User: Fold these one by one.
Assistant:
Number 1:
Amino acid sequence: MDFSEWPKIELHLHLDCSLGFAVVNEFEPGITTADFQHRFTAPLKCQNLSDFLSRVEDSIQLLQTERALTAATLDLLAQLQSDNVIYAEIRFAPLLHTQQGLAAAEVVEIVSDALEKGINQTGVQAGLILCTLRNYSAGQSMETVQLVHRFRHRRVVGFDIAGDELAENPQIHEAAYAFARQHGIPCTAHAGEARGPESIWETLRYFQPQRIGHGVRCVEDPALVDYLVKNRIHLEVCPTSNVQTNVFATLADHTIDKLYRAGISLGINTDGRTMENVTLSEEYRRLHDCFGWGPGHFLRCNLDAVDAAFASEETKAGLREALFA
Ligand code: ADE
Ligand code: ZN
């Protein structure tokens, strides 16, 4: 089955994990495809999340200038267009891109301007989510969420925490999430990826996000599944990424079909298109081949994602129409 023509929603996608070859080649002319693969993609199987994250370093190093951030954002919008993604939320951690003198606010302005341009060029609708990282300080998390507040009129739609889930003291980011709630900023949080249900409970308790990035090990705790269903907490599921970071040995071991059947709100995402070496159409094909998923499954996932999107009701109504067209 060819899923490339199907309209799709993607809520969980990292800018720094999605650098196309053409973009890298622009900044490192003559780079070979083998070198590109070695430095800008990760193996299909990493030891764990920390191993995977250590491999994003070259991409971050490249994304330190206005030119590179702009080129990467425009290229990602073009990738989304050819994958028939009609609405995307693209995330990045602004504080990671200040190593060559850009201020964090300038980074957000640059990506926001490029996004605006990319939306106009491609017709893909999109918003930005700003990430703090698990290993950041309370101050860095607060700085990041304040950037969300400051740039909400510039297509910044939400706040996230990414990075290594094994980092200690999640409580230190509580104040940033409280700031988000006080200012009506929609929130998501990576959890239940490198750790199990206890990490998801902790994340729900401390951060109270509307969505969870991954959360796929919740099935180990029926009370947690119940809680997610009752509170309509949406899971941003990234199947290929979860196999790559070794949450599951193979796709057949993935819990997505169980989560779906339990009635949890969930969507399908790539997490990144280059580091994970996958498109969203390919994710759909793999779910079709592995679990027998068909149009009904994908439509429900996309409608769940629209409900959970950090977008206006007007935008959501338009997206639902496009999904049914
Ligand atoms: N940053 C990029 N990919 C990530 C992932 N899978 N989990 C946490 N942080 C990330
Ligand atoms: Zn992620």
Note: The two ends are 19 Å apart (CA to CA).
Number 2:
Amino acid sequence: MADDDQKNPDDFFIRITQAANTIKKHIDTNEFIRVITHIDADGLAAAGILGKTLQRAQAFFRLRIVKQLNEEIVNELTSEDPSLLIFLDLGSGSLDLLDAKLKDCELIILDHHKPMEVTIPQLTHVNPHLANFDGTREISGAGVTYLTAKTIDKTNIDLAPLAIVGALGDSQDKNDERGLIGLNEDIVDDAVNTGCIMVDKDLLLFGRETRPIHKALAYTTNPFIPGLSNAEDKCLGFLSNLDIELKHNDRWRAINDLTVEEKEKIFSKIATYLSSKGSPDSDALRLIGKIYTLTHEDRFKPMRDGREYASFLNACGRMRKGGLGIAVAMGSRGETLDEALKILTNYKKMLYQYLDWVIQTPKVLRKMKNIYVIDGSDKIDELIIGTIASILSSSYLKEKMPIIALTSAENGMVKVSGRIPHNFNRGNLDLGTIFHEISTKLNGRGGGHNVAAGALLPKESENQFVKSINKLVGSMHHTVTTD
Ligand code: C5P
Ligand code: ZN
């Protein structure tokens, strides 16, 4: 790979054009296109974008959702003999797997995870890191897929909202006012200019336009508000002595119906509450920021709000119903949507059961010198452990330290998810890199971004992995900021 100063941003767009041309060639010759996507919200949004693009072009294609690439999956793909394989929101960190096996078919990777340094001749590799863009913050897998879709046919500009949903799903809004930046911001411009998205600054509670305020508060999990998140009754009590009319003429008011002063009152009460629970001020500040509203969506459905749409897709994926999420992203409504919405409800229920269990069961959550460890073995679903780690790292824990969550996975393996809280001074700590390095040494596989990473390990390596992470985090000279 070239050194950072040799990387050229134009190269990113050249690769996008190459990828678009290759896809068009296969559409024109009506050859079988196999698309593999990642199970998370970004991956499903990316699949929604490419799926719609290929459907519009009447291409011959099939989609598959995976949680992580492995040799078995690559073998299965090889046996299908596709003429073109496209990987969305994954692939860049698994080039070693693709190299030997897939010699006879053209490959495209549209990803934003840290790439490996492997050259594959028949691969068009589109990844912001290869051209000096920040793949963690500036563009998601759905964003890379969107730019390619728009190059295939400019009418696909109407898919820009899904790229925004993908970026929000990957928490790329950890910026001033929780806005999207860099290449994501250009995508927001496309969506705003075509009237698909409206950007406002407001209180970031889920269901701002329609949901009763106490429900909107209970529904919000970022930041996770201990005692209030998922507790409608508690939220109602919490808001009722604020001297704000919660109901008007027998109709519950929503955040949108409140005056600026009323919103300020609510915000300052939540901020005081969070601070009484030991959270830093920055946690409350995450409740104010840019809202991305999908103007063509129904006001009463989660797809109306970018972040809520992302949680909805995330829920579909984690409940192993990612196909429903992609169908909705591609435009299906009616029964498909009804079924998907039920999944969202069940997912939330399950998530809170897990959270309660982690918080209330002795020894599940423990503190080492430099990290927190959660042991969810035999209890927490391997697809949900990452979300648990994200929620707990974002607010529940008193000390801002990286969190490493483990649980049992298929075939006697252990799934690990690591998250670094947003106001932890990382120094030169890059979780994706250390997860990759340590898991490889311990006969596992891992990788990811600098603040969020995952790995799959043999059971016997579990303790060594945790010890090594604890040691490495300690050696990277971090300090905790006081913001
Ligand atoms: O699985 P989990 O949600 O903990 O993963 C966190 C991040 O690390 C995700 O973006 C995921 O794609 C990435 N990851 C990776 N390689 C792995 C496992 C996870 O790039 N082997
Ligand atoms: Zn992603």
Note: Residues 42, 89, 112, 140-141, 170 surround zinc ion (ligand 2) (CB under 6 Å).
